[in-house]
Amino acid sequence: MELYDLTIHEAADRLARRELSSRELTQAVLDRIRQVDERVRAYVTVTEELALKQAEEADKRIASGNAAPLTGIPAAIKDLICTKGIPTTCGSRMLENFLPPYQAHVTERLLDAGLVMVGKANMDEFAMGSSTENSAFYPTHNPWDLERVPGGSSGGSAATVAASECIYALGSDTGGSIRQPAALCGVVGFKPTYGRVSRFGLVAFASSLDQIGPLTKDVTDCALVMNVIAGHDKRDATSAPLDVPDYTRSLIPDLKGIRVGVPQEYFVEGMDDDVRASIEAAVNKMEELGAEVDWEVSLPSTGYALACYYIIAPSEAMANLARYDGVKYGYSDMRGDSMWRNMELTRQHGFGDEVKRRIMLGTYALSAGYYDAYYLKAQKVRTLICREFDAAFQRCDVLVTAVSPTPAFKLGEKTSDPLQMYLSDVCTIPVNIAGIPAISVPCGFAPAEGGSASGGDGLPVGLQIMAKPFDEPAILRVAYAYEQATEWHKARPKL
Amino acid sequence: MAITREEVQHVAILFRMSLSEEDITRFQQQLSQILDYFQVLQQIDTEGVPPTSQPISLENVMRADEPRPSYPTEDILANAPLSERGFFRVRAVLE
Question: Which positions, given as ranges, span the membrane (chain B) (predicted)?
Answer without folding.
Answer: none
